[in-house]
């Protein structure tokens, strides 16, 4: 037989569940992607008796989720600025000759530039369906934001959880031009589409109640990137270069299409290009934008035949302003024996890591088709199980 206290808690919860669903989407609901995230995360119904803690935890969770979306949608590395075809002038013959047998990697930069007067243009198509935020599943309701639990019971009796369905698709236009044999400039223009819909579900003793729902979509230009690379040294098959990138805040921050602030990326690049095998390593920092970062990346590309190159890459980012979510507990201020759990942020600083495997195929002339898949090596931040990308590039 349950105690009078538990009966009182039950009665209050049932009264709450029978109230009108003020949180459900209405014409006044904010329709930006960021507004929908705020609406779903902060629309709380579970009674905890501590409004200040509820608000602080809800705002922290909202900020963490929005930050994870921004980091993964607006600051991801763009396609490599280097062309698949690298040329140098043969002084004995007076003609331009290809200097490498492979077509390089997709994201990891190579130290050599395309060559003086050489230009390339490409376009990539990519799509991601995100299903996890840290260790929490976005789609099955396990992203619980607040719950009440009796200390002598193994599971909460009253919970609220989010279900989010998020998809990002992008078309990125990129190009580069060799000013000299050692100096190259380039740019990248991402065109993005983002869709989000979700529900906030209150479950009391196994009975579900829709507390809030919302959806939004946005399309537009992302943050434009301007690039430059200079090869500092050549040593046989090896080379070393430095590169810089400026991300302009051209994307719509309210719809998570842009960072809202200018960002700078500075990298050192080392390459070893020997015959059919090429190895590349990148290391650098990101300042401004969504967050400061330390970046490390490595790639290996192998020309299995003159027209086909296979590549594998690993990208690692240490993001200073990104935190995983965690639960904190506190005694319920009104009901003895009841513990309240709230979703909030952990310590700042998170490491993201992804692996990429793909191929490049020289179909004709200087036209190169490519395809690769990316998948997470760790579950931190916002992750998709797999992200396929198709590219086409032309050098002239």
Describe this structure in words.
This protein is mostly beta strands and 396 residues long. Helix content is 12%, strand content 53%. It has helices at 4-17, 33-42, 51-74, and strands at 87-90, 95-98, 119-130, 132-133, 136-137, 143-150, 158-178, 183-204, 207-221, 225-235, 238-247, 263-274, 277-288, 293-305, 308-319, 325-331, 338-345, 350-364, 367-376, 382-383, 387-395. Strands 3-7-8-10-11-12-13-14-15-18-19-21 form a 12-stranded antiparallel β-barrel. It has a 3-stranded antiparallel beta sheet with strand order 5-4-20. Strand 12 and strand 13 form a beta hairpin. Helix 2 runs antiparallel to helix 3. It is elongated and about 75 Å long.
Enumerate how many helices there are, as a single number.
3
The fraction of residues in strands falls at over 45%
Q: Strand pairing plus helix content: what structural class?
A: mainly beta
Helix content: 10-25%
| CA(first)-CA(last) distance | 82 Å
Secondary-structure element sequence?
HHHEEEEEEEEEEEEEEEEEEEEE
Order of strands, main sheet, comes to 3-7-8-10-11-12-13-14-15-18-19-21
Query: Unreliable stretches, pLDDT < 50, 5 or more residues?
Result: 4-27
Largest sheet data = 12 strands, antiparallel, barrel
Strands, total number = 21
Round the Cα radius of gyration to an integer and report it.
Answer: 25 Å
Mean pLDDT across all residues, rounded?
82
Q: Overall 3D geometry?
A: elongated
């Amino acid at each position: 037989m349950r105690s009078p206290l538990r009966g009182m808690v039950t009665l209050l919860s049932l009264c709450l569940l029978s109230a009108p669903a003020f949180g459900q989407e209405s014409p006044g609901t904010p329709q930006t992607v960021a507004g929908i995230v705020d609406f779903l995360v902060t629309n709380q119904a579970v009674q905890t008796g501590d409004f200040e803690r509820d608000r602080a935890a809800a705002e922290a969770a909202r900020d963490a989720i929005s930050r994870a979306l921004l980091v993964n949608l607006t600051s991801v590395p763009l396609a490599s600025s280097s062309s698949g075809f690298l040329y140098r002038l043969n002084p004995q013959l007076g003609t331009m000759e290809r200097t490498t047998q492979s077509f390089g990697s997709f994201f990891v930069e190579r130290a050599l530039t395309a060559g003086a007067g050489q230009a390339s243009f490409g376009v990539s198509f990519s799509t991601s369906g995100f299903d996890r935020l840290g260790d929490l599943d976005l789609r099955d309701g396990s992203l619980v934001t607040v719950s009440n639990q009796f200390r002598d019971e193994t599971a909460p009796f009253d919970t609220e959880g989010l279900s989010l369905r998020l998809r990002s698709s992008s078309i990125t236009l990129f190009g580069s031009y060799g000013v000299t044999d050692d100096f190259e400039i380039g740019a990248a223009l991402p065109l993005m589409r983002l869709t989000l819909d979700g529900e906030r579900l209150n479950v009391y003793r196994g009975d579900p109640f829709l507390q809030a729902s919302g959806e939004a979509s946005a399309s537009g230009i992302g943050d434009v990137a301007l690039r430059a690379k200079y090869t500092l040294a050549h040593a046989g098959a090896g080379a070393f270069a430095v590169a810089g990138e400026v991300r302009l805040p051209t994307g719509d921050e309210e719809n998570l299409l842009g960072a809202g602030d200018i960002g700078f990326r500075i990298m050192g690049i080392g390459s070893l290009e020997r015959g059919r095998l090429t190895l590349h390593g990148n290391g650098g920092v990101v300042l401004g934008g969504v967050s400061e970062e330390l970046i490390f990346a490595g790639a290996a590309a192998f020309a299995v035949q003159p027209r086909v190159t296979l590549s594998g890459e690993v990208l690692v980012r240490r993001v200073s302003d990104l935190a995983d979510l965690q639960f904190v507990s506190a005694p319920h201020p009104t009901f003895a024996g009841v513990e309240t759990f709230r979703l909030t942020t952990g310590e700042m600083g998170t490491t993201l890591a992804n692996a990429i495997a793909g191929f490049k195929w020289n179909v004709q002339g200087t036209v190169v088709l490519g395809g690769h898949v990316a998948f997470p090596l760790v579950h931190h931040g916002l992750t998709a199980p797999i992200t396929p990308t198709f590219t086409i590039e032309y050098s002239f």
